[in-house]
Amino acid sequence: MKGSVPRCWSLLRFSSSPETKHMTLRKTLAPKSRSLLSFFSSSSSSPPPTIRTIEVGDVLRRWRVFTPADVDAYSKVSHDTNPVHFDADLARLFGFRDRVVHGMLVASLFPNVIASHF
Fold first, then answer.
1. Are residues 1 and 44 in the same domain?
2. Which listed site, 14, 78, 104, 110, has its alpha carbon 20 to 30 Å from 30?
3. Which range of residues forms the domain containing residue 92?
4. In this protein, which residues make up the domain named MaoC-like (predicted)?
5. 76 in the same domain as 48
6. Are 72 and 113 contained in the same domain?
């Protein structure tokens, strides 16, 4: 593990000051057996990690086709029985092309989409 940086290093970008960064790292990321200075030392042989962030305008893509069975299963666990999720004719009446996939079912993919790009 020497010279490597934990994947969760990117959490540091949310901190606003060097003092806060050190505190955040100490509390959440630094193993007890390693010195905090090993993460910030300027004499380290490896360069500091590049911290990738999502910027306005960035596009992250992941394709997933939700089946009627996916929508039905999600409806059962979420108790969302809105007819636009089950009745294609009603969904078309409201301007959709077909049944509507639950927004939170689609949103459940976000962590995977983000993780696959970082």
1. yes
2. 110
3. 68-117
4. 61-117
5. no
6. yes
**Cβ-contact 61, 91 below 8 angstroms:** no
- 30, two tokens: 């630094």
Instruction: Kindly state the tokens that stand for 100.
Output: 């509507």
> For the chain, where are the alpha helices, taking DSSP H only?
18-28, 37-40, 68-78, 88-93, 103-107, 110-117
Tokens 């689609």 -> residue: 106
* Residue corresponding to tokens 């394709």: 63
